[in-house]
Specification:
Blueprint: H1 2-18, H2 30-46
Helix pairs in contact: 1-2
Transmembrane segments: 32-52
Keywords: Membrane, Transmembrane, Transmembrane helix
Protein backbone atom coordinates (compact mmCIF):
# COMPACT_ATOMS: atom_id res chain seq x y z
CA UNK A 1 0.00 0.00 0.00
CA UNK A 2 2.83 2.37 0.79
CA UNK A 3 4.43 1.47 -2.52
CA UNK A 4 1.35 2.71 -4.38
CA UNK A 5 1.38 5.93 -2.34
CA UNK A 6 5.05 6.43 -3.21
CA UNK A 7 4.33 5.94 -6.91
CA UNK A 8 1.48 8.46 -6.77
CA UNK A 9 3.62 11.05 -4.96
CA UNK A 10 6.52 10.59 -7.38
CA UNK A 11 4.16 10.97 -10.35
CA UNK A 12 2.64 14.17 -8.96
CA UNK A 13 6.10 15.57 -8.20
CA UNK A 14 7.26 14.71 -11.72
CA UNK A 15 4.24 16.42 -13.30
CA UNK A 16 4.59 19.54 -11.13
CA UNK A 17 8.31 19.73 -11.88
CA UNK A 18 7.90 19.00 -15.59
CA UNK A 19 5.23 21.63 -16.17
CA UNK A 20 7.15 24.22 -14.13
CA UNK A 21 4.01 24.98 -12.15
CA UNK A 22 4.61 27.58 -9.47
CA UNK A 23 3.01 26.59 -6.18
CA UNK A 24 2.73 28.82 -3.18
CA UNK A 25 2.11 26.03 -0.69
CA UNK A 26 5.28 24.46 0.71
CA UNK A 27 3.64 21.00 0.85
CA UNK A 28 3.13 20.87 -2.91
CA UNK A 29 6.64 21.63 -4.11
CA UNK A 30 8.31 18.85 -6.10
CA UNK A 31 11.02 18.45 -3.46
CA UNK A 32 8.57 17.96 -0.59
CA UNK A 33 6.49 15.51 -2.64
CA UNK A 34 9.65 13.61 -3.54
CA UNK A 35 10.67 13.38 0.11
CA UNK A 36 7.21 12.18 1.09
CA UNK A 37 7.44 9.57 -1.68
CA UNK A 38 10.82 8.45 -0.41
CA UNK A 39 9.42 8.12 3.11
CA UNK A 40 6.55 5.97 1.80
CA UNK A 41 9.01 3.89 -0.20
CA UNK A 42 11.20 3.38 2.87
CA UNK A 43 8.22 2.21 4.94
CA UNK A 44 7.21 -0.10 2.09
CA UNK A 45 10.71 -1.57 1.88
CA UNK A 46 10.74 -2.14 5.65
CA UNK A 47 7.82 -4.49 5.17
CA UNK A 48 5.28 -2.68 7.31
CA UNK A 49 2.14 -4.84 7.49
CA UNK A 50 3.71 -7.48 5.27
CA UNK A 51 2.64 -10.31 7.56
CA UNK A 52 -0.92 -9.07 7.95
CA UNK A 53 -3.51 -11.75 7.33
CA UNK A 54 -7.26 -11.78 7.87
CA UNK A 55 -8.19 -13.17 11.26
CA UNK A 56 -11.00 -15.35 9.92
CA UNK A 57 -10.42 -19.05 10.35
CA UNK A 58 -10.80 -21.35 7.44
CA UNK A 59 -12.14 -24.85 7.77
CA UNK A 60 -9.59 -26.24 5.32
CA UNK A 61 -6.75 -25.67 7.76
CA UNK A 62 -8.32 -27.72 10.54
CA UNK A 63 -7.22 -31.26 10.88
CA UNK A 64 -10.04 -33.75 10.53
CA UNK A 65 -10.01 -37.04 12.41
Amino acid sequence: MFGFAAVALFAIAFIVNGTATSVSNAWLTPTSLMLAGLACLAVHMLGYQAAWRPSARRASYRRRR
